[in-house]
Amino acid sequence: MAQLWGGRFTKETDQLVYNFNASITFDRKFYRQDIEGSMAHVTMLARQGILTDKERDEILACLKGILADVESGTLKITEEYEDIHSFVEATLIDRIGDTGKKLHTGRSRNDQVALDMRLYTRKEVLAVDELLKELLHTLLNIMEEHVDTYMPGFTHLQKAQPVTLAHHVGAYFEMFKRDRQRLSDIYHRMNYCPLGAGALAGTTYPLDREYTARLLGFYGPTLNSMDSVSDRDYLIEFLSALSTIMMHLSRFCEEIIIWNSNEYRFVEIDDGYSTGSSIMPQKKNPDIAELIRGKTGRVYGALMSLLTIMKGIPLAYNKDMQEDKELTFDAMDTVKGCIALFNGMISTMKFRKDVMEASAKKGFANATDAADYLVNHGVPFRDAHSIVGRLVLYCIDRDKALDDMTLEEYQAVCPVFEQDIYEAISLKTCVKKRTTLGAPGQEAMERVIREERDYLERYKSIS
Asked: Which of the residues are catalytic?
């Protein structure tokens, strides 16, 4: 068992205890971050005169070699090591001898793992942001293509008023745009370097923490060594943002599942994103949408787990914090996979414009506009509401839409109706009249699309 702390102990750790304590099975994931952090650390040590330039160059060359060998597969990260830090340092010492023992001068595994996790999380924040940006491009393309694709808007899962597919998809564009903004906030808040905090109280060596921070792309060093090694707020924030992303994906997936049903038939999911049944040959199941909906609970679980882990931990570092990694890594990978698959599914999905429009007509989505017609002809709104309610009941009894009624049928209920009622309640008119910013009318929608396109051009990545 390769350990870096054996001097204090007089006998070997029990194997079960060692296995329970070890983290190499999962923290091997940030071998690159550990090596890059060590390279910055040793560069700073030499700059401060704590190491010689010769020692620095020898260590740096060996660390680069270790990184290359791990990535080529010629060097395996095995479970004989307690953690990734032990693996890197032991391999370094094995290759260059006593000089390698100087790498750990002025640091602890506490600030080392804090750095590794922060570097890895920062990379993941950027990766998720890039996937969301690609998804937003897909959504915007759908919006541009379907400005005049009419469909029912819903409240309480009941048809309410006519909208367009562009308008409906635009609601999700806003959600995922906010998700990107949250990621940007997290990135800027977390981008400070904990290296140099030591175990919890800094070090007596004359470290230049500002220099190390610059080498690693941070805005600067963290300002309290105890907080530096015990802070997991940025992970909680990231898991919260990931949970919100999954909630948005799940809501959209729920609608796609409904739209894909035989009763709705609004969409046809591409064969590449569907599966069949082992017994029912007619089935085409929206499994990807259902799995994304299901995996949302998995990401929520990671957030709740970390909140629970952190709630009772006193300052500074405690071993409980090792539990932050597996669940966070899983959540990161889950969300990235879900965004990528969702983007592929929706970009290949076919929208049934004719079925959507027929559904909007069938569900009395234009009833509010019929009431507005009466109001514009001098009928008090409350009376107009009641009159159109009677019209809807009349149509339900006869299985017809408001558009299908004759003028005589209209006038039998209220003589105010004239021939222009048909134009007033057409889906095109109902949508077109809604011109306020944020509404589904074509003029308003095209303005929003221009603004969203400009947003994607300006906000290409977190910086």
From this structure: 156, 277
